[in-house]
What we know:
The chain is an alpha+beta fold.
Amino acid sequence: MPLIRFPQPAASEITPKEVFLNRRRFMAAAGAASMLPALPALAQNAAAQKLTAAPGPFGTDEEKTPYDAVTGYNNFYEFGTGKEDPARNAGSLTTKPWTIKVDGLVNTPGEIGIEELLAFPLEERVYRLRCVEAWSMVIPWVGFPLAELIKRYDVQGSAKYVAFETLVRPEEMPGQNSRSLDWPYVEGLRMDEAMHPLTILAVGLYGEVMPNQNGAPVRLVVPWKYGFKSIKSIVRMSFTEKQPPTTWNIQAPQEYGFYSNVNPEVDHPRWSQASERRVGDGFFAKRIETLPFNGYGEQVASLYAGMDLRANY
Ligand SMILES: Nc1nc2c(c(=O)[nH]1)N[C@H]1C(S)=C(S)[C@@H](COP(=O)(O)O)O[C@H]1N2
Ligand SMILES: [Mo]
């Protein structure tokens, strides 16, 4: 039993919550380890580095999805299309060194390293992430508003959108050797969506550095949109005048639009969006009602005033 591999925080760092989380995770991991000796989450835990984060705004007090579900049930096609593939395969990703290239309609293009991103004042934001596949999770992300990063650049007035790109490195991302999607994975936001205080760049979750399968070392989290807008392992951010292409819209334009706001009234062509299953709840747990804008309507509905959200889905 590899007990020794669990990091021991210095006594000065221990808060009651961390003690609780560590103990809970330790017990879950110990239980799982006896059944599944090669559980990838264990390797991730062993390397996990703690992050210091102040409690941030907009949090939900719904029960958090357990760590093992958050890190064991993922969509990250660069590592395979199965929900357990990312946890199994993402250990191979090298996340240091890491930079995001910032270019396009900006007078001060450049690159920003992960060390600088980790130096932003970090907050814990307990947000829901709802996948278009009608499952959802409640995750204590660690990150900072994307607006804080964008404000550091002299963006030109003609910029209307921000485009994002994920790393392409097939040697470390086995899913990129298949054509399951066009690589790189790309996403985009309108400038006001990108600047909205709910939109964060996340560098961790559950108080530790982002597990590879969740989009290490830095990903977007846009909580009022379907999960696929929350692009992982970002290496480029470009300011554009034209609406940028987005992966799922390229893949299936009849199913996925640019906006992709959570909308229980606009069904996916192949299934209803009216309700969802909370990952980690038992198989027989009652489905929960999906809320417009994933429950963040009060904060973001005004961004879409006057738009037909059935056409702009
Ligand atoms: N680069 C990249 N980003 C991605 C994806 C992906 O396959 N590749 N999947 C998206 C989808 S469909 C969802 S639901 C969320 C899942 O995030 P999670 O696995 O951390 O819960 O990531 C999104 N970001
Ligand atoms: Mo998704």
